[in-house]
């Protein structure tokens, strides 16, 4: 068994060596890990309110080491969305 806190912030790379960034979000479905969202989460991304990265299905995970998560060469999808701003009424 592995804890979610052990996955958070861990580096993710493909079997061919391509680095995808670090895990910054863990998606659950019925109390099981369904996917990992990983990528760069820099200061400017937080200021701009954008989220970009890769969605990796849990089925693509090949092994987990103390320092990284290794996934299959194919199977991650690019994620890019902009946070919605809340309009304030006067």
Describe the 3D structure:
The protein is mainly beta and 90 residues long. It has one domain: PRC-barrel domain (SH3 type barrels). The chain has 2 helices and 7 strands, in the order αβββαββββ. The protein has helices at 4-7, 43-48; strands at 11-14, 19-29, 32-39, 50-57, 61-64, 68-71, 76-82. Strands 5-6-1-2-3-4-7 form a 7-stranded mixed beta sheet. Strand 2 (19-29) and strand 3 form a beta hairpin.
Features of the shown structure:
single chain; 2 helices; 90 residues; 51% strand; mainly beta; SH3 type barrels; 7-stranded mixed beta sheet
Secondary-structure blueprint of this entry?
Elements: H1 4-7, E1 11-14, E2 19-29, E3 32-39, H2 43-48, E4 50-57, E5 61-64, E6 68-71, E7 76-82
Parallel strand pairs: 1-6
Antiparallel strand pairs: 1-2, 2-3, 3-4, 4-7, 5-6
> Major beta sheet, specifics?
7 strands, mixed
CATH superfamily: PRC-barrel domain
Mean pLDDT across residues: 80
N-to-C span: 51 Å
Q: What are the low-pLDDT stretches, counting only 5+ consecutive residues below 50?
A: none
Helix content: 10-25%
């Amino acid at each position: 068994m592995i804890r979610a806190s052990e996955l958070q912030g861990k580096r993710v790379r493909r079997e061919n060596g391509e680095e995808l960034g670090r895990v910054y979000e863990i998606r659950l479905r019925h109390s099981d890990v369904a996917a990992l969202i990983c990528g760069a989460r820099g200061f400017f991304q937080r200021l701009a309110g954008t989220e970009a990265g890769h969605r990796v299905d849990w089925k693509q995970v090949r092994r987990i080491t103390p320092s990284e998560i290794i996934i299959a060469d194919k199977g991650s999808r690019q994620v890019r969305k902009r946070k919605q701003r809340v309009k304030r009424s006067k």
